[in-house]
Amino acid sequence: MGKALIIGAGGVASVVAHKCCQNPDVFEEIMIASRTKSKCDALKEKLDGGETKVSTAQVDADKVGELVELINGFKPDIVINVALPYQDLTIMDACLETKTDYLDTANYEPPDTAKFEYKWQWAYRDKFKDAGITAVLGCGFDPGVTGVFSAYAQKHEFDEINYIDILDCNGGDHGYPFATNFNPEINIREVSANGSYWEDGKWVETKPMEIKREYDFAQVGKKDMYLLHHEELESLGQNIKGIKRIRFFMTFGESYLTHLKCLEDVGMTSIEPIMYEGREIVPLQFLKAVLPDPATLGPRTVGKTNIGCIFIGKKDGKDKTYYLYNVCDHQECYKEVGSQAVSYTTGVPAMIGAKLVLEGKWKKPGVFNVEEFDPDPFMDELNKQGLPWIEDFDPVLVD
């Protein structure tokens, strides 16, 4: 049916490529492109032999000209951006120039400030509409599935949703004293930034890790979770009717937080460049180089993730609560695609979103967040593609 260009060759890109190859009727051909072609070639080697034709290329995703040349040569029907969030805009520019549909899993953030918001990408709405092409923003798990869950709850379970709590629990253990489950630079920037939540149409800011709750997660157990700023709060605040407050919580173990605090205290998480032996380095980028590569955690990570949304609202004039979540097993993911669950839960939804665009179910000109599309075909695909969802009509609420 179509061709996909996957930009990036890390853990998430690996999952996207594996899942595209599991759906050869939709993805007849894929190309994996990144700055380091050897990573793409290693991935191709694992995928060869199936019905989907796989090729690779070298590209610098910071350079629009290189991207345009690559797109014009390969002529994909969609570009799946699983590179770095800093590269969203250059890839969107290249898609505009070549009139190619676009999908990503994380919103743009400028390299020099840990501020992630949608304004830069939403500014492309008219350009994409005029070009007649589709851009799907934030189609991982959170953001991504959490937005689809919200749209599904709005469509089928509520007349109005007033409160959403997004809970992201990783109960996995990789055995290292300190490592991050996805790109260390992005992960540490997110965690060390101020927290915030959306209430009554505006942001309420908190200090990093200031708000802590304990929650008993199905199939994982009791975990400490902390309120963070997260990008989907911004789009859901605009797209869900009747919303009064949205919060995002993520679990962290004591050891992780202790290590992070020490690294912060000595300046290793800073994104301000410093001079070292006559050359400029960014401490956080140096730290990334010495930490374990998240792509190598798969074989040694055991346990499960549990990610979902608790909704509070009204149906037929009555108060109602509803919890939609997914539980994913790190080792099961590794057996299937050679990656741990954090990469899996991001990569599978990216493939599903691209599949729905290619099938015409999520195809309309403009720039959209996932909750602006019909959630039903996506929810069906989650059950088929390895991320089945679970409903709870009487959940324990977060105070």
Which features would summarize this protein structure in a list?
399 residues, single chain, 18 strands, seven-stranded parallel β-sheet, 28% strand, alpha/beta
Question: How many helical stretches?
Answer: 14
Per DSSP, what share of the residues sits in E-state strands of 2 or more residues? Answer: 25-35%
Shape: globular
Helix content: 25-40%
* Low-pLDDT runs: none
User: CA-to-CA gap between the ends?
Assistant: 48 Å
Radius of gyration: 20 Å
Protein model, in words:
The protein is an alpha/beta fold. The chain has helices at residues 11-21, 37-47, 64-74, 88-98, 119-122, 125-131, 145-156, 184-192, 232-239, 254-265, 283-290, 330-337, 341-358, 375-385, and strands spanning 2-7, 27-34, 53-58, 78-81, 101-104, 134-137, 160-170, 195-199, 202-206, 212-217, 221-227, 245-251, 274-276, 279-281, 304-315, 318-329, 366-369, 389-392. The strands form 3 sheets. Strands 7, 8, 9, 10, 11, 12, 15, 16 and 18 form a 9-stranded mixed beta sheet that branches. Helix 4 (88-98) links the parallel strand 4 (78-81) and strand 5 (101-104).
